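Thread title: Can someone regenerate the structure for this chain?

I was given the following input by a collaborator and told the matching structure tokens would be attached. They weren't. Posting the sequence so someone can regenerate them.
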Amino acid sequence: MRYRRVKGATEKIERLREYLVAAPEELRGRWSREAFGNDHPLFLEMGCGKGKFVTELARRHPEYNYIGVEGQERVFLRAAQRAHEAGLKNVLFIGEFLQHPSDCFAKDEVSGLYLNFSDPWPKARHAKRRLTHRRYLEEYRRFLKPEGTVAFKTDNDDLFEFSVEEFREFGARILEISWDLHGSPLKAKEVTTEYEEKFREWGKTIKYLKASLEPEAGSQ
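Best answer:
Regenerated them for you:
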């Protein structure tokens, strides 16, 4: 695991080791069986921050396994601490940013992916870095089950417009969409992130979509 050293990190890492995955690529194709010791469906959050969202999902759904990915050491250690305090056994954390997540997850291994408040990379020349760019969508399709989905939340209007277009151009099927998630009846508003709560306090609306990356049968 490639860490950026922060004060007291070594001690925290040792204390929280049961929640931290040191070599995620070595578990490719064997996550549920070897990392969790079961055959439950696997869900992934890219950019889990301090872990509020993914740990709440894990608490509500012990029948599923969850993995949070976060590249900032101070942040993912807080996420792991949150899981430890809650006594959760169905969530783990990868403490690095995954440029190519399909190197760590095999075909049909993941049942669902969450992208919450990803960096908008506002400059046009940085569009390929956005986690909803079609090159990432292609990456996700490599490890999502055929019935698997991508759920995306943002407060950023421009990023949302870009993302909707990318999903559509990619040929994804948009299953749910809202320009004001918390003003809608969608269940996706029930579990929130730290950013989501902060942005709502500031009066911002939360945009949301959920999509399948598999085309309709017979459409190809």
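The mean pLDDT is 93.
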